[in-house]
Please model this.
Amino acid sequence: MENTKPITLLELYIIRHGQSMGNIKRVTDGLSHEDLHDPRLTELGKKQAVACGERFKTIEFDAVYSSALLRAVETATEIIKRQPKEKTLKVLPYLTEAGISPEYSHSSFTEINKINKNAVLADDIDPTKSLFYYNKTSDEADLFERAEKALEYIKTHQREGEKIAIVSHAAFITYLVFSLMGYKKECPLYDLDFKNTGVTKVTIYKKGTNKYGDIVFEFINDTSHLFKGDF
Model:
């Protein structure tokens, strides 16, 4: 079949949040309720988020999504602050970190809007439901199912050729990435170990138009923006 010009459906930039209090404290003694259940960025994490935002200041995203967990909201907000044009942060419950328990008390939209006044619930998400997605089980198939829902949501709510930033969490990003690689029920026997503000760029092409495949990873877990500062 004669080659056709590759048609880009979406460019996805999947980004882990900056360092949070939960990343540096492994014991519960002395931690505040906030640091236990919805930890904020550390001072280092804030610098990492700023550096990540600087990395993307010449790339205009058509949409920026994050989970409702405050460390992701803070990171996404630093990225948005440095965009060429002002834009809305879309809070998408599917992007919640894996293993979050419904017994935890998490942030409200009031708290989210204190960080980002332009943050809104993503389109077509039921506002009467929780801002957070709680997995029914710890089964990997359940997490893959949620990852598929997140990707399908973004595919169906964005236009062809758009650039999308997705700010989420290390464990859940693992399922997003492996899902894009074709895994559906369980992870392979290796770990990608996503770093704070690590960026994974994935280009999704219209089926059959790109000779290298319909889904192409341009880089995974890239933190080159951190090499330019005191991190």
